[in-house]
Every structure is written in C-alpha cells, then in structure tokens.
Amino acid sequence: MTCATGAVPHPRLQLTDEVRDAIAEGRPVLALESTIISHGMPYPDNVTMAREVEALIRAEGVVPATIAVLDGVPRIGLTDGDLEMLGEAGESVTKASVRDLAYVVAKGVHGATTVAATMRLASLAGIRVFATGGLGGVHRGAERSMDLSADLTELSRTPVAVISAGVKSILDIGLTLEAMETLSIPVIGYQTDEFPSFYSRSSGYAVPMRADSPQELAAIMATQWELGITAGFDIANPIPAADEIPAEQISGIITQALADMAARGITGKDTTPFLLGRVVELTGGASLTANIALVKNNALLGARLATAYADALQAR
Predict the structure, then answer these.
(1) Residues 226-275 pLDDT 10s
(2) Residues 276, 288: Cα–Cα separation, whole Å
(3) Is 168 a known active-site residue?
(4) Is 269 annotated in the active site?
(5) Of 167, 166, 120, 158, which is closest to residue 139 (Cα–Cα)?
C-alpha cells in the first residue's frame, strides 16, 4: 500500500484501520505523541486531555494518530482503552526516544514516545504533520551537562512538521534557537514575529520566518521536501493570550524548580518530567491549565495544517 506522500508504511508498524485508510486515500492525518500522556500530566487530567484533543481533531475532519509502542509493537493510532492505560500507568511506562525504540520493541514492552520518536514513527507511516505541546531543546547549563534534546537532531533529518508552543520554557531558548539554525531546521512563527516560550507568548527572541495561514505553511513544507531537503519544521504557535502565564511571572517559578531539581540530583531524561511537575506544584495548578490550553491550540492548528497539506499534495 502506497500512501499519498509516496511512502510505504513500514511493515513493523501497526496502523488502525481508520489511520491506514486515511493515509491510503490521501486524507489528512495528524500525529500526536504519547509521552505527554504518561509523563507530561497527572492522571486523570492526562487522559481527559488526550480524549478531548482527539475529539477536537476529528471535529475538523482530520484523523488523529496518537503514537506509542505497546507490547513491543509501534502503534499508529490508539484505542480509548490504550489512552486510559497509558495515562493511569504514568511514569512506569518507558519514556522512549529514538535511541530507545529498538530496545522497547525487542523487549516487547510499552514505550511512550517522545517528540523525536513520534516524528520518526510518523514519518515511517507516511504522516507529515504532528502536534505537541513544547519541543525539547538545549537545557540550561548545557555547557556543563551537554544536555541537548534528541528532538533537535530528529528535526534536522526527518520530514515532519511539528507544531508546538515553542520549546519548553525550562530550557535555554536562545541556545536552542542557535542550535536549530546550525542544524538547518526551519523555524516558522505562526502569526507571530516573536518565538513563544510555552506558557508565555513572548520570549524576547525573534522568529526567523513567519507564516499567517495553514495554506502558506503547507506550501512551504511541500516546496522544501520537493527540493530534497529532508529536515522537518518547527512551527511555533503561541499559546492563546487568554491562557498564557506572563514570562515575568513564570520565570521565578522555573528558577525555583531548577534549584529543586539540582538539590535532588535529578539528571538526564528525568529532568523534564520533574521540572514540569514541580512547576505545576509551584503554580498551584495554573501551569497545567495553560499546558492543556496550548496543546489544544496546537492540535487545532495541526488539524488545519494537515488538511491544507493534503490539499496541496492533491493540487500538485
């Protein structure tokens, strides 16, 4: 079976009938990650969020494809029961980046896919648009820890457009943007000239490119991949103004969360779940509310971009 993007879904992937049919027929499909369910939010808010996001996407006439590895099988599209299981199991599920995919598949265990792993599996399935919350990037203090997210290297080589509310504000945004420039990753602000910072619409950093409609974004994507440039896209979509936590308000909270993490000696892939959870505690839940709002906002743009991209392919 050849999909509309010209790719043949990898035989190790298990696609739901809904996703398989949509890809084969050239209809819009939007990829979603699963780490945001298991590691990004507490239960049951995580499952409620996942269900609401999928419903929002379907209301736009787009097929949602939440991605995870379950019992060692890379799954493109999950059942409602799968979402419940991932949400309730939480951090007991392996957090799987690209480096971990072979391990969780060979061991036959569950893996919640990060942005990087979701990109790779979406690309193998022939899906070109993916909506998430925030990207990983260069961590603060990376000059000592060398802590750089695999999301960046994956974006540099995998042809998937990722819609996010910028990078997570716990990161070093300036260094992340420098790294993306070095890796030739196009960063496009959606209806903004300033790079957003997850909970906040502003960061103090300009975006190198801007687009103001899903059709404009779709044309840029199609053109890049027709030119043989295989990098993905970081599409920076600011949190709605009514839902943001101003940068000056969240800054001190993040500083406190970083100090708490250092005091506990937390490093590596455990840093982001700890920091996000600690910020929720320090904001009295306000950051969780903002997180859910920006994920829904990104999913809405993702659905409209998936439709515009499918239309662009049909017109070529």
Answers:
(1) 999 999 999 999 999 999 999 889 989 988 998 998 899 988 778 777 88
(2) 9
(3) yes
(4) no
(5) 167
